[in-house]
Design goal:
- It is a single chain.
- The chain has five helices and no strands.
- It is flat.
- The two termini are 22 Å apart.
Length: 100
């Protein structure tokens, strides 16, 4: 994955006009997405997209066990079923062999 990022940056930089100086680089994302990888960073399951709400029950758990205000203090995020922590807990519950 990182090799693809480097390749894309090289391709973009190579298409710039002569003498152009890049002073910054930014990356952005619509939301959290991720997958479980092995020690060689190979995906072990399909990506769980940012809009996937399978972690909704875990958001309720965080609310009960930690509290929405404390979660916001720690992360700067409101409790939402789309957050990565909920997705990871879903993987732990439903695909424990991958979680290990």
């Amino acid at each position: 994955m990182l090799a693809a990022v480097f390749s894309a940056v090289r391709e973009c930089a190579g298409s710039l006009p002569a003498g152009c100086v890049v002073e910054g680089l930014a990356a952005a994302s619509m939301g959290e997405a991720g997958t479980v990888v092995d020690a060689e960073c190979r995906a072990l399951r399909p990506l769980i997209a940012w809009y996937d709400t399978r972690g909704a029950g875990w958001a309720d758990w965080w609310e009960r066990e930690v509290g929405a205000e404390r979660i916001y203090e720690l992360t700067g995020q409101t409790l939402d079923p789309n957050l990565g922590a909920q997705k990871l807990l879903w993987v732990r519950e439903h695909e424990p062999e991958l979680f290990r």
